[in-house]
Write a structure and sequence with these properties.
mainly alpha, Leucine-rich Repeat Variant, elongated, Beta-catenin-like protein 1, coiled coil
C-alpha cells in the first residue's frame, strides 16, 4: 500500500447545521427543544406530521392546530411533571396498548387514506413521550413486563414500534423515540436499581433489542440533528447492554447483531466528523479489545487500512476541541486492540499497510498524536509475533526517532492526559521489545546507541533505573497501607493483589529498564560494563538490585498459549540475571 495515499486522507469536517464539537449533548437538546419547562419549550414533531404519504400537504394553520393538539395530549406544559405512581403507570400502559392497536387497525382499514389514521398516529406518538418520564422512576420498570398488564407484553410492544408498517419518516420518528426511551431507561447508575436493570437487560436480550438498535442506526440520516441524536443514543443503548450484562459472550453477541461491528467500521470510515463518529470509534475499540473473533472480522474487512487512513489526518494536525481529541484517542485505541496479537495476521497487515511509517512520521511531527503513536509501536513490536515489525522499525530508521524521546521526556499533555510516566513506560518497553526480538547486526545497531556520545544513553538509562527504584520504595508503603485497610474490612491482600498494585505504581517500567541493563551488560562490550558498574557505585548501589528485579520479572512472566516460548524466555532472563557478577 502507498503511504502517500494514507497521508493524503482528510475527513470532511464541514457539517450541515450546528457543529456538534461546539456544543455538549445537553446544549444540543436545549437548542432543539428549548429550555426544559420553559414557555418556549416545544415537543419536536416528527417529519411525517408535516406531510402525508400521498403527497397532500398540510397548511400552516393545520400544522399549528395539530401541534397544539399534540402538546395538549402529551401534557407537556409549564411546570414540572409529577412522578407517576403504580396505578397511573398501569393506566398509561393499558392506554398505550389500546392506542397502538387502534393505529394498527386503522392502518389496515384505511391503507390508501393516510389522513384517516393520522390522528391515531399523533396519539401514539404523544403517548411515547408520556412513557419517557418513567426513565427517572426505575422502581416502576417491572410494570413493563407485568403479566397483569397487557399480558406482560408492554415492553415487547414498545420494541415492536421500531418495525412499524410505515416505511417513511413516520416510522423513523417512532423508532428513534423508542430508542431514546430505552436509552434513558438504561442510563441508571444507582446501586439500588442494579437488580431491576439486570432483569431489563435480560428482557432486551430475549426480544432482540440489539437488532432493533442496529436497524435504527442503519436508517439514520445524520444531516438531521434529531436523527443524529437518535444514532448516538442507539450506540449508547448497546454500550449500556454490554456494561450491564453478566453474559461473558455479550461482546460477541453485540458485535454480530445486525453486523454492528461492520457498521461501526463503515461509520468510522466516513469522512464526516460528528458525535456519532466519535462514539462509533469508541465502541469499535470496546468490541475489539480481547476478542480474537472480532479482531479477525475487522482485519478481513481491511480495518487496519481504514484506521490508518483515519489517523493520518492527525499526522500534521492537532485535533480541534475535546471531541476531536476523543475521536483520535478512540481510533488509536481501536488500532491498538486490532494489532494486539490475538489475531497475528493483523500485525502483518499493519506492516504491509505502512503502519510503522505512519507512526514514525507522527512521532517526528511532535503533534498531539505522538504519545499514542508510541503506544501503537509498542503493541506491534511486543511479544513473540513482534519480530517482523521490530526488524522493519530499525530498517526505517525508527531508532533515530525514538532515542531523542528517550533522552528527554516531554511534559505531561493536559489535553490528552498522557503523563511523563506513560511516555517513559512506552519508550523503555519499545526498547526492551526490540532487544528481545532483534538479532545479529540489527541488535548490534540498537546496542551501539548506548555506546555512542560517550555512553550518554547508558547514563540516561541508569538515571531512569534510580528514578523508578525510588518509586517502588514509595509503592511498598502504599501496598502496606492498602493491606491494612483491607485487613480492617476482613480481607487479606494476597500476593497477586500486591503484585498488581506494584505494577500499577511503576514496577513494569523498572523491570523493562533493568532488563535492558542486563542485555547491555551481557553484550560483550567492556566499556558498557565499566560505565554501568561505575554509575551504580557512585549511587552506592550494585548489580545485585538489578539482578533481583530481573529474576522477579522472569518468575512472573505468567501463563499463555505458547508455554514453551514463555519457558524459554524465562530461562533466558534468569541466565542474563545470573551473568551480573
Amino acid at each position: 500500500m502507498d503511504i502517500g495515499k494514507i497521508l493524503d486522507f482528510a475527513p470532511d469536517t464541514e457539517l450541515r447545521g450546528e457543529n456538534p464539537f461546539e456544543r455538549t449533548e445537553i446544549d444540543r437538546q436545549k437548542k432543539a427543544y428549548g429550555e426544559p419547562n420553559s414557555k418556549k419549550s416545544k415537543l419536536a414533531l416528527p417529519a411525517y406530521m408535516e406531510s402525508v404519504s400521498d403527497g397532500v400537504r398540510m397548511t400552516e394553520a393545520e400544522m399549528e392546530e395539530r401541534r397544539q393538539e399534540l402538546l395538549a395530549k402529551a401534557e407537556i406544559d409549564n411546570g414540572e411533571q409529577e412522578d407517576m405512581d403504580e396505578a397511573a403507570t398501569r393506566k398509561l400502559f393499558l392506554l398505550f396498548d389500546k392506542r397502538m392497536k387502534k393505529n394498527q387497525d386503522q392502518r389496515i382499514k384505511y391503507a390508501q387514506k393516510p389522513e384517516k389514521y393520522m390522528n391515531s398516529e399523533m396519539d401514539l406518538y404523544a403517548h411515547l413521550h408520556e412513557i419517557k418520564q418513567l426513565a427517572t422512576q426505575p422502581h416502576l420498570y417491572p410494570l413493563f413486563w407485568d403479566e397483569d398488564i397487557n399480558s406482560g407484553l408492554t415492553l415487547v410492544n414498545l420494541i415492536s414500534l421500531s418495525w412499524h408498517e410505515n416505511s417513511d419518516i413516520a416510522a423513523m420518528a417512532r423508532a428513534l423515540t423508542m430508542i431514546e426511551t430505552l436509552y434513558d431507561l438504561l442510563d441508571q447508575e444507582e446501586e439500588e436499581n442494579e437488580e431491576i436493570c439486570k432483569v431489563l437487560y435480560q428482557k432486551y436480550m430475549e426480544h432482540d433489542v440489539l437488532s432493533v438498535a442496529v436497524g435504527t442506526l442503519k436508517r439514520m440520516d445524520e444531516t438531521k440533528n434529531e436523527e443524529m441524536e437518535a444514532a448516538f443514543k442507539s450506540i449508547g443503548l448497546l454500550e449500556s447492554i454490554i456494561e450491564g450484562s453478566d453474559d461473558q459472550d455479550i461482546i460477541t453477541k453485540v458485535a454480530n447483531s445486525g453486523n454492528f461491528l461492520i457498521w461501526l467500521l463503515e461509520r468510522v470510515r466516513r469522512r464526516t466528523i460528528n458525535m456519532v463518529k466519535v462514539y462509533a470509534a469508541e465502541m469499535l475499540s470496546v468490541l475489539l479489545q480481547g476478542s480474537e473473533e472480532n479482531q479477525k472480522i475487522i482485519g478481513e474487512k481491511k480495518g487496519v487500512d481504514i484506521l490508518l487512513k483515519q489517523l493520518a489526518y492527525f499526522k500534521k494536525r492537532n485535533p480541534k476541541g475535546q471531541e476531536e481529541i476523543e475521536l483520535m484517542e478512540n481510533l488509536f485505541d481501536a488500532l491498538c486492540s486490532v494489532v494486539q496479537g490475538l489475531y497475528p495476521p493483523n500485525r502483518k497487515k499493519f506492516l504491509e499497510d505502512e503502519g510503522l511509517h505512519l507512526m514514525n512520521l507522527m512521532i517526528r511531527e511532535k503533534k498531539m498524536s505522538r504519545n499514542s503513536a508510541l503506544k501503537v509501536i509498542n503493541h506491534v513490536v511486543s511479544g513473540y509475533e513482534g519480530g517482523d515489525n521490530s526488524v522493519k522499525y530499525v530498517e526505517i530508521l525508527g531508532l533515530k526517532t525514538l532515542f531523542p524521546l528517550f533522552m528527554k521526556t516531554p511534559k505531561r499533555n493536559k489535553k490528552t492526559g498522557h503523563t511523563e510516566n506513560d511516555h517513559e513506560e512506552a519508550i523503555v518497553s519499545i526498547i526492551g521489545n526490540l532487544m528481545r526480538n532483534l538479532s545479529g547486526s540489527l541488535k548490534r545497531r540498537l546496542v551501539d546507541k548506548f555506546v555512542e556520545l560517550d555512553h550518554a544513553k547508558s547514563e540516561r538509562l541508569l538515571e531512569l533505573h534510580f528514578k523508578y527504584a525510588e518509586k517502588m520504595e514509595a509503592a511498598e508503603e502504599e501496598v502496606e497501607q492498602q493491606a491494612a485497610i483491607l485487613a480492617q474490612e476482613g480481607v487479606e491482600m494476597d500476593d497477586d493483589m500486591a503484585y498488581a498494585l506494584r505494577l500499577e505504581k511503576g514496577l513494569f517500567t523498572l523491570q523493562q529498564i533493568d532488563y535492558i541493563i542486563v542485555e547491555l551488560y551481557g553484550s560483550g562490550i567492556e566499556s558498557l560494563r565499566e560505565r554501568i558498574i561505575s554509575h551504580l557505585s557512585m549511587r552506592k548501589s550494585s548489580l545485585k538490585q538489578i539482578r533481583e528485579v530481573v529474576k522477579d520479572y522472569a518468575d512472573n512472566l505468567g501463563d499463555g498459549e505458547n508455554q514453551e516460548a514463555i519457558e524459554q524466555e524465562r530461562n533466558r532472563l534468569l541466565e542474563l540475571a545470573m551473568g551480573l557478577m
